[in-house]
Amino acid sequence: MTSTRVVAARAGQGQLAGGAFAVCAIVAAVVASTLTAQEAVPGIPMPGPLVTVGLPVVRVLLDVAAVAVVGLSLVPKLLGFDAPERTEPVLRRVRPLAVTAAWAWAVCALLTIVFQTAELNPGRVPTLGMIASYVDTVGTGQGLLFSAACALAAAGIGLMAVRFGEKVPAELRIVVALFGLLPIPVTGHAVDSVWHDPIMIMMEVHVMGAAAWTGGLIALAVFVAPRAELLAVALPRFSRMATVCLLMVGMSGLVSGLGTMALTPGVVLPDAIVTSQYGLLVVVKVTLTALLVPLAAHIRFRLLPGIRAGRATAVAGWATAEVAVMGLAYGVAVAITRASIG
């Protein structure tokens, strides 16, 4: 097989990673949201199936687009700037895709506002007045609007990078993308206590760490893995970053999940962990995060030495398995934001 065919074959394997993440996230979100949906109460109108299914799907697509922007923005830093003749062909593909993903992020954030307005007004078609009222009075709407604005800013900076290349600092693109993730925890459960701010910070750390870890791995699998010489440079850098992200995601997720339950009135630990929808979903998410550890360890300790030595490895396949589990965790996370705690 010629080198061109090898690169094409590896590229096809890498693209499976992005598809696996999106599909697993959507399926997990729809299934988990359906299983934890509130039962109909006689006399109280309930949202229709379009909202019940559409809201978690759009919410997951928002996460997928945001993760894509973060991951694509990280690629220049992972590749480095020492060999532009080798990295520029990859970056010329990455930059416009980051812009497209940023536009998708903004659209999905705005659509989520529409769906959530419809959820609060079952049986009615959302009007501009209803949507404006929702954004004005509900923190979730304000957070999503701010996230959409950050996504549009990321698209604008990305267009500058498409034209001027790495003269537009990669750090700026990364910071703007991560900044747009900060309002996302507002769309989940709120804790009304003196511990509100620390728990919100833990949630934000969790969201940013997960996006950098997941987005970076998908970007490497899709764009870098087909080129062994670039992978040998980028994967060690990503591996160090992923270790930090794993610690961030694991600790912050556990603290915020247990803290939210502990500080919710009427909820008793540890019973709520196995008796509430929220607690069960937290257990599922912790289990999925634990499953990521051996997958990530295999790539770092078993495959990375061979990649550094220039040998062919099955890194794309292992990366696909890892991001598929990440997709399931993202889908469960969307269901957690809507699950009952008590």
Describe it for me?
This protein has helices at 3-35, 49-79, 84-120, 128-137, 139-164, 170-179, 196-224, 228-262, 271-275, 277-308, 315-336. The protein has 342 residues and is mainly α. Helix 1 runs antiparallel to helix 2 (49-79), helix 2 packs antiparallel against helix 3 and helix 5 (139-164) packs antiparallel against helix 6 (170-179). The termini are far apart. Residues 1-9 have low confidence and may be disordered.
Could you provide a short overview of the structure?
The protein is mostly helical and 342 residues long. Helix content is 79%, strand content 0%. The radius of gyration is 21 Å and the shape is globular.
Helices and strands in order:
Elements: H1 3-35, H2 49-79, H3 84-120, H4 128-137, H5 139-164, H6 170-179, H7 196-224, H8 228-262, H9 271-275, H10 277-308, H11 315-336
Helix pairs in contact: 1-2, 1-7, 1-11, 2-3, 2-6, 2-7, 2-8, 2-11, 3-5, 4-5, 5-6, 7-8, 7-11, 8-10, 10-11
Low-confidence stretches: 1-9
- Helical amount: over 70%
The overall average pLDDT, rounded, is 88
Label the overall shape.
globular
Number of helices: 11
Kindly name the structural category: mainly alpha
Q: What is the strand tally? A: 0
Termini separation = 59 Å
For the sheet with most strands, the description reads: none
Roughly what fraction of the amino acids lie in strands? under 5%
H and E string? HHHHHHHHHHH
Cα gyration radius (Å): 21 Å
Task: Pick out its properties.
mainly alpha; 11 helices; 79% helix; 0% strand; disordered N terminus
